[in-house]
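Design request, tokens follow.
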């Protein structure tokens, strides 16, 4: 067996395959982001003041995806990245059929639950696999490439699906695009994607066995070490999932700061996904105009990560995380304070750039403080909290909008939360 080599150049073909995989994963979720909120009113009568019911599909999506993220890393360490990736695509196969034949909103919620499984398993594996194959000092670049590919697809999917919906109608348009993308993703995952866990094990051999999980200098990781004869991976003790979850969620202040930031930043994306299309229509914009503005957000987010990911490797994680959180918070508040399409478009781009600053950098920062033997597990804990933010944010916005019988207060909730979360990172994160 040839010696495994790390680095983007040495594994370029497989990294390109993984970038195509995350592109297809991005297409899968992107197809639903503007069409499903539209279906809520036109097909299922959830318009008017039924704000809480409108948010249910994102609450379910976030809850399911967060749990899948938590277990995806652990499963991939035990069963391999490729098997988890394939399982994620299989879970997505019924989604187009559920949306095509849905007699009520409950079927749409069920489809988004399956979408959460798909996104949690597949998106996680595409990133883990690329981290496995590349050098440890390329984490920011890898995160940037991964998120660029995924979110460029989210933006593109909105445009393509809007065209298909215009030609074939919402249900058939979603069915045609969804079936094509999901089947292609599954076939390519089976036929061309390689298992990358051997590269992760090779990383372990290059890493001192007593590397602290905290990344906080003198702090040790005794709370995460199991007995020497149990759960060993590449010569390094492997903690249980419960130990890793407790450690990352509470005991380690760096990981706690990163996890809360990941959770809160999803408030912004949930606002864009659920609230913004409805709010723009209430401001007398057409669905096409609303989709175009939201597309600017996703496109700037995706493209800018090609810059911000490598920049975090060079200049450090903390400035980009804090700056991105604050930029998003300011942009969200400006949306509700302005009244022109031109300004809304500019603000959408501002929020997208803020997301580009913080999004790949948060994942890279978690990887910084995670030794390779437990990296997938600790990244899984981070992704659990990050995508649980969809559920917390959507539920909070739905309840607030229902109580206020309007949407404006949801912007203030999200904007202030982003500013405070960024301040938390600024004050407590010290891995610079």
């Amino acid at each position: 067996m040839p010696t495994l080599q790390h680095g983007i150049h040495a594994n370029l073909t497989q990294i390109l395959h993984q970038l195509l995989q995350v592109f297809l994963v991005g297409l899968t979720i992107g197809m639903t982001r503007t069409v499903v909120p539209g279906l809520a009113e036109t097909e299922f009568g959830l318009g008017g003041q039924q704000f809480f019911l409108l948010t249910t599909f994102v609450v379910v999506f976030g809850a399911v995806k967060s749990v899948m993220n938590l277990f995806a890393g652990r499963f991939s360490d035990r069963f391999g990245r490729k098997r988890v990736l394939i399982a994620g695509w299989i879970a997505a196969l019924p989604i187009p059929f559920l949306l095509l034949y849905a007699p009520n909103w409950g079927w749409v919620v069920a489809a988004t639950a399956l979408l959460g499984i798909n996104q949690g398993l597949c998106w996680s594996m595409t990133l883990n696999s690329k981290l496995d194959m590349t050098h440890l000092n390329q984490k920011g670049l890898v995160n940037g490439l991964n998120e660029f590919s995924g979110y460029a697809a989210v933006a593109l999917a909105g445009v393509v699906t809007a065209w298909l919906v215009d030609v074939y109608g919402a249900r058939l348009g979603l069915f045609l695009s969804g079936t094509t993308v999901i089947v292609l993703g599954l076939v390519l995952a089976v036929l061309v994607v390689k298992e990358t866990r051997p590269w992760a094990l090779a990383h372990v051999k290059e890493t001192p066995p007593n590397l602290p999980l905290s990344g906080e200098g003198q702090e040790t990781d005794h709370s995460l070490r199991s007995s020497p004869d149990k759960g060993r991976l590449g010569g390094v003790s492997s903690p249980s999932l419960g130990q890793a979850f407790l450690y990352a969620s509470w005991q380690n202040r760096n990981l706690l700061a990163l996890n809360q930031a990941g959770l809160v930043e999803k408030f912004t994306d949930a606002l864009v996904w659920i609230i913004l299309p409805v709010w723009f229509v209430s401001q007398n914009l057409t669905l096409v105009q609303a989709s175009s503005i939201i597309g600017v957000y996703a496109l700037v987010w995706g493209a800018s990560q090609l810059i911000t990911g490598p920049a975090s490797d060079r200049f450090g994680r903390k400035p980009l995380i804090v700056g991105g959180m604050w930029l998003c918070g300011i942009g969200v508040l400006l949306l509700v304070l302005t009244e022109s399409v031109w300004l809304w478009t500019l603000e959408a781009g501002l929020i997208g750039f803020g997301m580009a600053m913080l999004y790949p950098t948060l994942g890279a920062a978690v990887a910084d403080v995670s030794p390779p033997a437990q990296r997938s597990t600790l990244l899984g804990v981070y992704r659990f909290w990050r995508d649980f933010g969809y559920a917390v944010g959507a539920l909070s916005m739905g309840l607030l909008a229902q109580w206020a019988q309007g949407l404006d207060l949801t912007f203030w909730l999200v904007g202030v939360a982003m500013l405070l979360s960024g301040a938390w990172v600024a004050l407590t994160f010290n891995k610079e």
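Comment from the thread starter after seeing the answer: thanks! Strands lie at 232-233, 236-237.
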